[in-house]
Write a structure and sequence with these properties.
The complex is a heterodimer.
Chain A lengths: L2 E4 L2 E4 L6 H7 L23 E6 L4 E4 L10 E3 L3 H15 L16 H8 L11 E3 L9 E3 L9 H9 L6 E3 L6 E3 L13 H5 L5 E3 L12 E6 L8 E7 L2 E7 L12 H5 L18 E2 L2 E2 L2 H19 L4 E4 L6 H14 L10 H13 L8 H5 L3 E5 L3 H4 L1 H12 L3 E5 L11 E3 L6 H12 L9 H9 L7 H16 L3 E6 L7 H14 L5 E5 L5 H7 L7 H10 L4 E5 L3 H4 L3 H10 L2 E6 L5 H4 L2 E4 L8 E4 L4 E5 L30 H10 L9 H7 L16 E2 L25 E6 L23 E5 H7 L6 E6 L2 E10 L6 E5 L14 E3 L4 E3 L1
Helix pairs in contact in A: 7-22, 8-22, 9-16, 9-17, 13-15, 13-16, 14-16, 18-20
Chain B lengths: L2 H27 L23 E3 L14 H5 L5 E7 L5 E9 L8 H5 L5 E3 L14 E2 L1 H4 L12 H5 L13 E4 L8
Antiparallel strand pairs in B: 1-4, 2-3, 3-5
Classes of the chains: A alpha/beta, B alpha+beta.
Amino acid sequence: MPRLVIDDREIEVPEGTKVIDAAGRLGIMIPRFCYHEALGAVGACRMCAVKFLQGPFKGVQMSCMVDAKDGMVVSTTDAEAVAFRKWVIEWLMKNHPHDCPVCDEGGHCLLQDETVSSDHSRRRFLGSKRTYRDQYLGPYVQHEMNRCIHCYRCSRFYREYAGYRDLGAMQIADKVYFGRFRDGRLESPFSGNLVDLCPTGVYTDKTSRFKVRRWDLERAPSVCIGCSLGCNTVAGAQFRAVLRIEARTNPDVNGHFICDAGRFGYSYTNGGAGFRQRPREPMAAGAGIGREGALERAFGALEEVARKYGPESVAALGSDRNSVETQCALKKMCAAKGYLPPVFFLDPAARRKTCEAVARLDERIAFSRSELESADFVIIAGADPLNEAAMSALALRQAFRKGGRIVVIDPRPVSMPFDFEHIPVVPEAIPRIFGMIVANSIPGEGGGLDANAGKFLRKLDRRSEDATLQSRIEDLAAGLAAAKRPAIVCGTGIVDETTPAFAADCALLLYRAGKRAGVFYVLPGANSYSSAVLSENDGRTFADILEAMEGGSVRALVVVENDLFRNFPDTRRLEEALARLELLIVIDYLPTGLENRASVFFPSSTAFETGSTFINQEGRAQFAHPVHAGGVPILGGSPEHVFRPDVPGGGQKPAWSILHGLETGLSGSGGISAEEIIASHPAFGAIAPLRYPVDGVRVIPVQSKEEFTSQSVSGGEPAPPRGLRLLLVDWMFGTGEISAYSDTLLESIPEPVLTMHSADAERAGLLDGQEVALRLEGGTVEVRLRVTEKMAEGVILLPRHQNLRWQKIRGFPALIDPERIAAL
Amino acid sequence: MNENESRLGRIMDGIGGIVDSYAVTLKHLFRKPITEQYPEQKKVLPERTRARIVLTRDPEGEERCVSCYLCEAVCPTDCISMEGAERGDGRRYALWFRINFARCIFCGLCEEACPTLAIQLTPDFEFSKYHVLDLVYEKEDLLIEGCGKNSEYNYYEHAGVAVGFDKGEHPGEAKPVDVKSNMP
């Protein structure tokens, strides 16, 4: 542990710490352009020069290139170092254009800050300025290459860190150019990070182009609710609109970066295109009534139904995008009024998988995303990281860069920006194969393991009938045996119901075998953890409620932030059941179509408008702070000249506050207290004072109650299914519940395709690129066919695409006779 | 000095005061008046007088304002607001631009901050209204046809972005780098 002195202050830092970081720990911010914690040091910009007064060597050196050593005495304010940095700014500004007024980086530009602080205001250089032509880089990132100072942050992130190859450095010496070979969309779904990384304005956010300056934004720490990872963001709003999302550093969750879907998919909160889509005022039967009127009518109608048919005739449905506060308020309302307890899942399989996963997470084996980055062997079982939780693919890329080996056992044609081994098998076979890898990695019968672990190990299959597969498994098992920090990434989408628990048991087995092993689940939605915790002892789902609605025992339904028509797989049945209801109360911020059917509709506020807690897939409770007050944005034309006391379109309230109103009949700002949240479930004890650190706090137990209880998966190869199994899959763009209402993402959404293995396609006589008609129970879906060899035989993949009526599937899971797919 | 003398002196002083002031009045009866008959007669104020704010155009007749938000940031009374937008050719402009003259104190900081010489204060100080909302001026009220105090400056000529002038065409710029050539 070297001890050194920086600016007369002593500090001890771990071996290998750069001087620039050591200074950072003292709160001394040495100016830098090229150095970045996640990207490392290259010494390209020369801006972090400091003077070494004593130590192994003396003189002006780049603090990002020098490891801290014992006895160093460093001055950041030495006249020689200050003069050096001043010259650096002057030469960097030699070619910099005179365009700060029209540059979106102006106001939060590192180069601008350093230019002002070094007092450089007159260009003394008489030569001409170098210029470059700019490129079209797609709908998100604006390119203005004249501003470049050649720090290489963009190409280092894009190529090395993220692993995409279509943007990089070209040319030599004074002519170095960062861009693509030719104009075109950036291929990386992490391209938005270039905007954050660029120390000047070469890459700027195109979705908020020219709309706002950083100093005008109301900014607050927020949490992305696009997927279950809960990446940390900073949201910025002006003129009642959220205009910019930036990545917020959280080493445990998202590191320094976020994906494009999270960064640019914010416009649902502004009301989408033209700001007109979002329902903003309380309505009854599609017509506006005031907030008081709506509450009076809804409360009265609920009382009426409960009086006529008993309180059990009122059911409630939440969702994964409810905040913890909303879910607890819903539970509390139902308990207080004697209604049926709320359900948060639509189908029983999804509930069981999520609950199994959540029940198994504990401090021993739950891996955070940063632990995934340092895993040296990763088994991905039934997950498509890039499509289901994009930032986890970036973590896996870091594991790969550090020499980790990654194997994907999944029927889908998984693609990620690094090399990995893919074993495409049908979902039933996934646990058996990774069980075999785990079993073969532990020598003998597992001597040294405790009884439970040994018993679990002996139950696992070790040999496959398929010789090629067997040799592959043995090779992988040898790799796993040598690994010290193996990880199992397990999805909850397409896998069988027993797989999540089995994955946890395998991770626990490896843990017992002396490895720092862990499991990393990918859950269905932003707050699935909380949904699962609150429904752990209640096996009912919306499927049961629907039956009760059809049977007439449920007469009133409260739907809180659930896009039922998108999520439920049988639209016709849903419509008929809704029509039988006497009372439908809908609380939402998205225009789901339910608001027009609702007897009473209440607009709720988004995470940007309410302080709300979300628990991510590793059980980390994070608080999204309110960013702004909401209302109809005043963008796109000058605001009216009127005085008014209220905010136009500001009829929304937090869902938990509306539920409190439905419970008590009282309007006002009452809601749910921290004590009530804690009382909802013991797991929420850690959420207690709502003052936990901004990095979030894990609410998982030290040790899970269940171990080695998952169902055995031995018993030979599963029988090949007759027909093709239809799997509904998620894509990064085009299948999300929230992103469907964000017009900023429209350009990213690819055309829906039905994906099929080439052998299956050949048997059915279908060709790649053909338009096919897929005859489902509820009608025909016309979709383009994509044929690939990189997937499992016996399954076909249909995305839950927003432009596809996949809801005609009528129930999960679906086996499709190949005859039902015909070319058009 | 005795008491009588002092009394005499005071009387003389009094008479002197009356006579002097009558003399001044008498003198002014025969002089040209200096009172300005405002508002019937209007004085030409110096060019740099700080009053009603305008948005000017560049010599090509384009709006000078690029909606950089600097005037809005520097304004001590927060009376300026705007929204920036991009024109078809990439030019940055203010979609709307509003000055609330009911709040403006005519300090001139916006004019100092303006990097494009767009916002300028003029000597026109007479614009009182019966209703306070009538003092909220929109872009169409603020924008004038001329260049204002500087008839030459065109910001985009020097900006270095490819708007109006192509890359390499601005004064003091080299031709754009050809990234596909190996020639030094």
